[in-house]
Amino acid sequence: xxxxxxxxxxxxxxxxxxxxxxxxxxxxxxxxxxxxxxxxxxxxxxxxxxxxxxxxxxxxxxxxxxxxxxxxxxxxxxxxxxxxxxxxxxxxxxxxxxxxxxxxxxxxxxxxxxxxxxxxxxxxxxxxxxxxxxxxxxxxxxxxxxxxxxxxxxxxxxxxxxxxxxxxxxxxxxxxxxxxxxxxxxxxxxxxxxxxxxxxxxxxxxxxxxxxxxxxxxxxxxxxxxxxxxxxxxxxxxxxxxxxxxxxxxxxxxxxxxxxxxxxxxxxxxxxxxxxxxx
Amino acid sequence: xxxxxxxxxxxxxxxxxxxxxxxxxxxxxxxxxxxxxxxxxxxxxxxxxxxxxxxxxxxxxxxxxxxxxxxxxxxxxxxxxxxxxxxxxxxxxxxxxxxxxxxxxxxxxxxxxxxxxxxxxxxxxxxxxxxxxxxxxxxxxxxxxxxxxxxxxxxxxxxxxxxxxxxxxxxxxxxxxxxxxxxxxxxxxxxxxxxxxxxxxxxxxxxxxxxxxxxxxxxxxxxxxxxxxxxxxxxxxxxxxxxxxxxxxxxxxxxxxxxxxxxxxxxxxxxxxxxxxxx
Lengths: 279, 279
Hints:
With about 280 residues, chain A is an alpha/beta fold. Chain A contains nine helices and eleven strands. Chain A has helices spanning about 35-40, 50-60, 65-70, 80-90, 95-115, 145-150, 165-180, 190-195, 220-230; strands at about 5-10, 15, 25-30, 125-130, 155-160, 185, 200-205, 210, 215, 255, 270.
């Protein structure tokens, strides 16, 4: 693991301060549950799996009743937080349990990566959103973990900056650079443009939660990417060559009002964008 | 006209420095074509119609052959620039012609506003992008001019911040505040979320250029808004009440994977978003 959001030292938890990335690379040392809770609340550590691991180590540092309450309140929307605290409560050896939660998250992420990588075509240009990498987990990452596992296929990443907190610009782009994965940073509003030009083969995003019926919750902006990825390619040959059309314009910021060519998109576990095969 | 991007003083052109908005309200005085060209290049003044007017006044200030060349190079993508310079070249009384171009742009914008306002429903919540208001023109505005003309209908504006240059955040939101038009500023990636919740009745954007066949070129991100606005409403009643679904989740950042209810959207001159009637 090159990028480590958390480092367990037995009597202390070191958290990479993600608020300072990419300018500074600083670990914050926590020796109490309250310090871990403050780090979660202040977004020193973020990403639901990483928050779950951090909370587990918070209990391991200070296995008191009050620790559960203060940690549970630190980020109520992170589903892994409540889950990890419940598991820690049932465990007898708190340190061993926290280490097990951490190790299992890493193993789960590597398994997600191995499974997901099978869906990635050779040389795919993959658009991703927010940060779902090693920084958001015990290591390797979920959606970005799939990309990491597929790096031998010569993939490249298009990272959306993810306003307003810029997890894509500050974290995903930085993480790709650490790993040597080619990465292009774009503003969120450029995603549709690149998809319409057929320059995105695949979109992979994380999920805060997924319900049994497939309903998904994630960072605001994910819905827009899903709508765009499902839209058939907008590139087409004009059937009205006699009329002036945007083809003559030198600007790259253009789109077609003509009815789009309908291409059939393959369904994958992720949102299927334009594939090379259909270009 | 409350907001004036340009003020012609007979022997000088005053340009509102839009780079400093909304923090500072400062006019830059230009007394030569080179100064006007620099102001266009540095984005003191922006918006194709305003650039066209500024260039015309630049020729009026200094009607030399060299003035045409330096102004033409200041922003080649603004179609109004080449158009205004060509018109100035043919005119005998340069000052009168520049004033006519300015007056005609103002009249055109008011006519666009009057025509467009007829399409705006009472109380419409209108999403807009970039800045297409008085700041981008001789006055009143194009797309934002339609909103301005419809203000008596109790409309409200949702302004996208428009990364990376933030024309929506810095200019459109400020301009709405000057006019007392209710305005909510959102990041660009939030537009789909508000549309999916039926909180946008209409999307109105400007256009850098429109070809005879309807092809349109505009600021990057416009295509995404068009795709989103054409998507049928994503709100629906789950047909799988027995299964856990996102309805139970307290987060606002959620969307449905179930097949959407297909609502028929009315077509307007602008991109028709969700109308109140269809909610």
